[in-house]
Amino acid sequence: MSDGVLVVGEIAGSGLRKVTLEALSEGKRIAEKTGKTVTALILGHDVNASAALASGYGADRILTVDHVDLTEFRYDTWMPITAAVVADEKPAFVMIGASTVGRELAAALSARINAPMAMDCTATRWENGNLVLTRPIYGGKILSDVILKGSPQIIVNRPNFFQLTPLQTDAVPETANVAVPQSVLRIVEKQQASAGKVDLTEADIVISGGRGMGGSDFSVLEKLADLVGGAVGASRSAVDEGWRPVADQVGQTGKVVSPNLYVACGISGAIQHFAGMQTSKVIVAINKDAEAPIFAKADYGVVGNLFEILPLVTQEIEKLRS
Length: 322
Known about the structure:
By secondary structure, the protein is of the alpha/beta class. About 30% of the residues lie in helices and about 25% in strands. It has 2 domains: about 5-175, HUPs (Rossmann fold), CATH 3.40.50; about 200-320, TPP-binding domain (Rossmann fold, 3-Layer(aba) Sandwich), CATH 3.40.50.1220. α3 (about 75-90) packs across α4 (about 100-115) and α5 packs parallel to α9.
């Protein structure tokens, strides 16, 4: 039994999601403050290779649940398993990355075990013996400090906020003694992202297009994103027009991103879009409308035709790299 930190991991490809590694790093810092340990819980199929990576980011123990029925995420299998492990381990804190999977799992887990939860946490600090969690509210207009009451406290960390700190331990994956329930859900269709594509929520650079793109040809954005190792996003208007898939939508009703650099191309800057990218470290706006609201929120702005400006930027980067 442990009253330390339990980090629920998520597999991506042959490794763990970056947001999971960030959770492990922050979980280790929290555990060290309390003199406790960090346990990583990895669910999926053929998980040992991925789970072993957790030992490189401070996990003192690694619990795995390996089953073919866990290949795809279904909340009615993942949540009961996680709840059973929480009941057995009795952690003080449960950390889950704020991915699409993580958000759903954390909400379901909180309801199942009647535990307090803070979504989209961007910072932690200790104050008078309490762990204070910082998270944005009201569409990101305000940063709120929260102290959760009860145990365990579920912390859902937003990607790209907690520092990655590699720390090798000698933890070896061990099998958790839990049953895998039968899911009542059926996956009828799966849209697979292109191989090697950078995950939008974890990208260090995001280049997004809006209505100003004028159509479905985002190749000028894709070329630049490929060159700098970034991801391509889109505003809701571009998605509604059918120019980009829903998975690329950034905003209040889409994905929340926090890259080091966010480039908004042909995006007017509606508050709903801003809510999904306002925590970006640097925001660059390119728009031919000098009065576009996005310029009031950007660190740098360029007034002009994005189809003329982006190719020039791409050319200059290529020159610098050659």
